[in-house]
């Protein structure tokens, strides 16, 4: 295969993954068929299935790759203060990627073919988010209790994202972020 | 209508609401048709529709009434210590009622007829949960920052519930609850 064809394949995959996440976020699992994604990406159904043989492959790959790209962007905040880091983590859970992931998680509870894939994916994304938060917060997990502070913060971010699903309230979110940044900073500083 | 018929009507409604929540939690929104709920409750479809004319009526009423019953049970903890209260709040978000509510919330993002009903319901349940948490924690919301501590705690509970959806991990949950009960207790005591 020539370099040109390889590059074209990568560009097609990226278009498909972006389209799959956008469809999931907007239309939910039942509305996000393979045909809808192919059409939105401007790719034939056959070409889609060449890259992603099953619907499960397509959507789990899409959420994984787009979430990775997002968390790579947050990593660039290294050195920022706690409030900045907490805000960036909360933002990860309020956009279309979280919405897409939520549709996938919920669908997996009742779709036996999807479930094992999503359980693995959730574990990978969760570990990655935890590692990123520890790094950015400069948290020392060898100190007892520090691990749970970081986990609780990530749970709070996830819960804020869920609350924003139907009724986004940026003002409330910002006040909670500000207060909890202070609490997390104190808990890490006090323990560290 | 005689007292006997009234009582029978209330018992039928309760059976329907319990069946609706159980179906949503197990089968999700698309699997939870009116017929499935009627069958599970042992009630005719006509009788169901007499009490709840539309599918939206049935499921929003079900989540509302069962959530109310649950939070009334938690209120009985008045006077318990912070760790107990935090654990009980987190438990509200990890059972089948939360799972049912989650299916309803997610379905509402793509179902225009469901959305306005669920937005109202979410606001009522959210206010109720907040009021309950404030009471049980003895939090004084006139002190700046206290309101956001309680809100963040409820967001954390919601996020822990979401994380438990596919991979329940009671050990992790308990460690986060214990650590954060200490932090929340400190933040409320320190501010109050």
From TrEMBL, chains A, B:
It holds the Pfam family TetR_N. The keyword Disulfide bond does not apply. The keyword DNA-binding applies. Keywords: DNA-binding. Coiled coil: none annotated. It comes from the Bacteria. GO terms for molecular function: DNA-binding transcription factor activity; transcription cis-regulatory region binding. Residues 10-70 form the HTH tetR-type domain. InterPro entries: Homeodomain-like_sf, HTH-type_TetR-like_transc_reg, HTH_TetR. PROSITE patterns: HTH_TETR_2 (PS50977). Residues 33-52 bind DNA. PANTHER family: HTH-TYPE TRANSCRIPTIONAL REGULATOR PKSA, HTH-TYPE TRANSCRIPTIONAL REGULATOR RUTR. This is TetR family transcriptional regulator. It comes from Streptomyces caatingaensis.
